């Protein structure tokens, strides 16, 4: 009986710890946004929240949005690789063990490109959970060719609803 109770307690503890850890890794403040992301994404690659990101020279950001979105603003230092026009030649100079964080507006396009990079042998791939929208929602800086900006391309009005901060620039 003692062993059964102990196993049950350990199982409950493990499940609770897993749930808390998972929730801590992917927090967004808007519950509807959280629900949409959990439905939209397959969670097939490692995810990282904006608050977990420690930008430094050892992290490479890859922007998987359309070129016109990238031109409006991007995470500082990001390399544009696109989505529909993605070609693995754009990442051929990046070492396969380098830490890479991919992003798009909300995380769907970047998740798909991250899957392709994993298939190509990249080993330290992360999808920015909630995308550049959540990056900006959390108060992180985006830039354009002139420096820091509050402008962001919301993709379209449907997706732009998840952007709480910044100036929407179509």
From TrEMBL:
Q: Which residues form a coiled coil?
A: none
Domain (Rhodanese) ranges? 55-144
Alphabetically sorted, this entry's keywords are: Signal
**Region forming the signal peptide:** 1-23
Any Pfam family matching the protein: Rhodanese
- NCBIfam families, alphabetized: rhoda_near_glyco
Q: What is this protein called?
A: Rhodanese domain-containing protein
The species is Leeuwenhoekiella blandensis (strain CECT 7118 / CCUG 51940 / KCTC 22103 / MED217) (Flavobacterium sp. (strain MED217))
């Amino acid at each position: 009986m003692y062993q059964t109770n102990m196993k049950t307690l350990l199982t409950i503890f493990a499940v609770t710890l897993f749930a808390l850890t998972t929730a801590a890794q992917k927090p967004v403040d808007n519950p509807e946004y959280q629900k949409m992301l959990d439905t939209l994404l397959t969670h097939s690659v490692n995810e990282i929240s904006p608050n977990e990101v420690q930008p430094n020279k050892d992290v490479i950001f890859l922007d998987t949005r359309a070129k016109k979105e990238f031109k409006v603003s991007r995470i500082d230092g990001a390399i544009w690789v696109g989505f529909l026009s993605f070609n693995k030649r754009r990442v051929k100079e990046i070492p396969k063990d380098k830490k890479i964080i991919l992003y798009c507006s909300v995380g769907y396009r970047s998740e798909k490109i991250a899957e392709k990079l994993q298939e190509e042998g990249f080993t330290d791939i992360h999808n920015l959970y909630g995308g550049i929208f959540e990056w900006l929602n959390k108060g992180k800086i985006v830039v354009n060719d002139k420096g820091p900006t509050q402008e962001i391309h919301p993709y379209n009005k449907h997706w732009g609803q998840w952007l709480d901060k910044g100036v929407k620039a179509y």
